[in-house]
Amino acid sequence: MQARPSWHARRATSALLAATLAAGAGLALLLAPGPAPAAAAVPATGIGITPSGYGPVQLGPLDGPAGSDEHGYCVQARVTASGPADTVRGATHVDDPQLAAALARHRWSTDDLTQAALGYEVHQRHQRPGSMAGGDVDAVRGLLAAATPQAVKDRAAQIMAQAAAEAGPWTGVAGSVSGEGTRTGEIRGIHLRSASGQLVAGVPFTVTLSGPATLDATGTRTYSGTTTTAPINVGWTATGNGTVSYQVRFPDAWRTTVTVLELAANRQDQLTYGNRPGHDPAEVTVPGEPFEVVRDFRPRATTTVRDVVVGAGDPLVDVVTFAAAPGDEWAVLDGVPVALPADVTWYGPYDSPQPQAAAPPAGAPVAGVERVVAEGPGTVSTAGTVRASGPGFYTAVVTIRRADAGPFADYVREDFAAPWFEEAETAVDRFDLVHESEVREYNVAPGGRAFDRITISGYPDDHGQFGGLGGWAPDLGEATVTVYGPLAAAPDGPEVPEDAPVHWTDTLAAVDGVFEVGYDDAHPVLAPARATHPGGDYFVFVYAFAGDDRVEAYVSPFDDVREVFYVPGPPEVVVPPSVVTRAQPSGAAGAPIHDVALVTGTTDPGDHLVFRAYGPQDPEAEPVCDEGTLLWTSEAVPVPGAGLYDSGSAPAPDREGAVYWVETLHAADGSVRHTGVCGLPYETTLVTADLAVRTQARSGPQEGSAAPDEGGDGPQGSAAPEGSGEPDVGGDGPVVGDALWDVVVVSGTVPEGATTVVDLFHAPEGEPLDCAEPVWTSAPIPLADGPGDYVTGRYPTTAPGTYGYVERTTAADGTVLSTGECGDPAETLTVAPPAPTPEAAPEPEQPLAVTGADAALLGGAALLLVAGGVAVAVHRARLRRALDATAADEGWPAP
Asked: Over the stretch 627-639, which tens digit does the pLDDT of each residue have?
């Protein structure tokens, strides 16, 4: 090779020095890759060698001839060097993937040793005949190898070993996609493999997406990087819904050929990496498998009520579990799940559970709505601000609306609504029964019949017709009425003892209504012919409903004094004193109130009563009767014997609330013979500021005055003077010919101009009472005197049967302020046919029933006490019944 022009000449003198320095370089330098191709790069010169018997030869790059893409390497030793001034006469493309790989990585190296190694390897692999060795190529290779420093040959070996691993043809791998069908994922395993199967590092590549997604690294559809010795993963995020396709392009694929440029005979031929032929492509493009993406998601919610059974006023709480629909993923932004509001709408109450439906029917009653927010998949509960407003069934429906998602609406694909009346989403506030009943007589003769009148309300109107739905059981169609006894003493607690003996039982339809128990001759309630206990036997009627999914279980109180009857036993001589009381049940703020006590049995000289009133207090709170709540204490009321004793008027309470009365019977020395219990219902006066009207039907012998006609032109009603509400004579009940009248008890604030009218209705014997056409109407009763008792005119009865009053109170402008109820027990009387004249009967051996007027009661009691003929120590509950009977006849406040 002759001396070279251009930049090679400037560096020829330093070639040997560079070779010497290179020989001591470490392996790291030998293996270091060359710089990436760049048009402005200037490769190192390489080194010069002197083959034996010849002049110097340069191992390194040459300036390319005219028409060459880049520099080349000599393939004819000791021929005049070619350069830019020379013209290419021909080109040959030679397959040599290994040398092409070596040139691709190192041809721009600025390291002389590396460039010398490339020049040496080109001569050894592609030497052409020249001036050396007579054109013997093999001889020239041997001469060059002998003259080349070992460091250059070692470096050449290292470069070619690396090239063998990296040489093409290359195979691009587009990888695989994870997260298909969701919002985010990765393209995993992008890499480039050489012909030997090795991963090729340092090669640029570009990933390009088509469709609704971007690459996380750039936020665009394109990402460029460089291959490494490990597969590369690239994350993606959906920007919409649809199909995404992609490709991976390796734009600078290394050649598998080299080009030999043929020059004039007196100029060196060159081997170059440039002048690439079309059959040796410059890039590798690999398509990936298309995949589906979803930017948004379909929300779903599953729910269940926290409490299946609730009480009146209890919170309705729904437990809601949020998730994405199957196959979807909840959208996550910057690592945080998007927040999604949902409405929980409570529908109801319904008397019975409804069949499940996809949506509520039009007009479905709404109990309330609560909003919850899902902070991603998970479970939340409503706050319970919606409450059960009445008995019945309530169902919750969860609704998710895309429009409510605000800034996250784009990530919600569709609305969602749970079905209406799902069983798991339904709660029930069971109907509560209201029970009122009273035996016809307290005292029943041995072997006689007992009768009970039971009024039940609270059942759903269609109770007994619901046949069940899903997990909701059908209605229980029957209730029971049981007579417990004989008992040695009247019941003293509300619960039925487990060992209470059963005397009689029957079933009733579990519906609202009035039930006459014991009147059926086929199933009478018969008292035993002889009392079991020495002091007499006590019996009690108990109504019971076992409960079902719509109605709460109910058992009437075992100690309900109105449900107790007594069968006398052998007489006893002494009846100890006993006291039962009946306080004024209601009163108006600003009006005085009072209490009444019935004393029976034997009293001693000096006995006296003291009444105490405590309050007013919150009726919902536990009653408290102490010095802190004491409202008033009566003067000592002398008790010379059995009878009724009034407390006198307590001062008017100044506010609403409950006033609790407690009576105490003292002996002459002040010792306590009896004291009442704080908080008993019949010893409670409820003080209110609102108008309250209650009524009580009365009966008695006709006084001979002209009867009012059906148009109501009888005596005007007026505030009742003392005693005006009393019957003329006591008895077991009215008969045809007796007069009926009504007492209207008014409390609270009475509007100016308020008026009460009372209608009287009649049903023949054996027929139900129908309040359609009155048989008599009272004259209007102005309530001008404010709170107090008002008495209607009297109506003389002419036919047996049931008579019922219905009160109607209106304001001056006609507004209805109060309306009575047809069949109200307090407003209903049964009139019997006239009794035949009885034959003279011997004096009874058993105690008389405590009924009739006060004079009859006290006379009978005094006679029995003085004569020593009273046989039974009458229990307080028994006396309560007597007091109630006396109250009904005497006109003092009823419960």
From this structure: 999 999 999 999 9
